[in-house]
Amino acid sequence: MVKMKHKLLVSIFLFSSAFSEMIFIPEDYDSIQSAIDAASTGDSLIVSPGTYLENIDFLGKQILVSSEYYIDSDSTLIGATIIDAGSIASAVTFKNNESFTSILQGFTLQNGIGNNEDPDGNGSFYTYGGGIYFEDSSPTIKNCVIQNNTANQGGGGGLFCYNASPVFWGCLILNNTTDDVGGGLYGREGSEPKFYDCTFEANTAEFGGGCYLRNESVPEMENVIFLNNIANNSGGGISLKDNADLSGSNVEIVGNEADGLGGGLYINNADPSFNFLLIADNLSSSGGGGYIRNNSSVDFTNTTISNNSAGLYGEGLYLRDDSDLSFLNS
């Protein structure tokens, strides 16, 4: 019975794949969004180099939208194929239950200013996700540069996740800003984004220059670098709050700065764990490498903490309020 079920699933997959299309832009459609509007499940949309002044929405479709990087793996095509949001809204939106089979690959996303959204449904609208807005979705983002986006009076200059768990492979989140939280990334309400071989560089926020995660949002990071991010208040590299229990492996937090607390890391009521972690050359008022507070329990394994600076207290780390810290082979 089980074997028959597997055969049936394979047959359905082969049947549906046989009818998927390869759509080329601008040859077949003059815009990426018009191609998405026309696409069906399983279709692949291949975009030629150029600058596309668009704000695209996947509309819940299980499709691939890629630059020609998908065809020949030439990394120069990432910088040559641009989705420019034109300072109108988010460059890309996923908010219709997109799954991992909804794939965006090989683009530079820029000049987004975020969507005016009310994900809580409480009647209060704010601006979120300058580069990409994720809500109730878990798509795949591969080999993209998310740069020069903003999301003021809300957060997530580069990326915003609300009850969303996208997966990122080989992405650069660069020079995004907000006057609120999460210059590179803002995640909340049970979001579980995953990052593999990614870099957060030169992003700026009031709290969480590189990223800000809270409300039981539990990210996973492997081979991820936080470099030269700035928080005007706390958490230059990473801010974790209220059970945002990050799991990190091979993470580097280097050269980040906070005017307030936690140049590299700011942890408030969260229990993250790291294996193979470097915290170096970060700067803040207190807790140059990291500031840990409010019953947080932190595990550092195979960790190096070096050459961090604090104007007042805790050049390496500062702990308070019944927090626990364990080191192994560090």
Explain what you see.
The protein is mostly beta strands and 330 residues long. 10% of the residues lie in helices and 45% in strands. It has four helices and 35 strands. The chain has helices spanning 2-18, 32-38, 69-72, 76-80, and strands at 22-25, 44-47, 50-53, 56-57, 64-67, 81-84, 92-94, 103-105, 108-110, 115-117, 126-128, 132-135, 140-142, 145-147, 154-155, 159-162, 167-169, 172-174, 185-188, 194-201, 204-207, 211-214, 220-227, 230-234, 238-241, 247-254, 257-258, 265-268, 273-280, 283-286, 290-293, 297-306, 309-313, 317-319, 324-328. It has a 17-stranded parallel sheet that branches. Strand 10 and strand 11 form a beta hairpin.
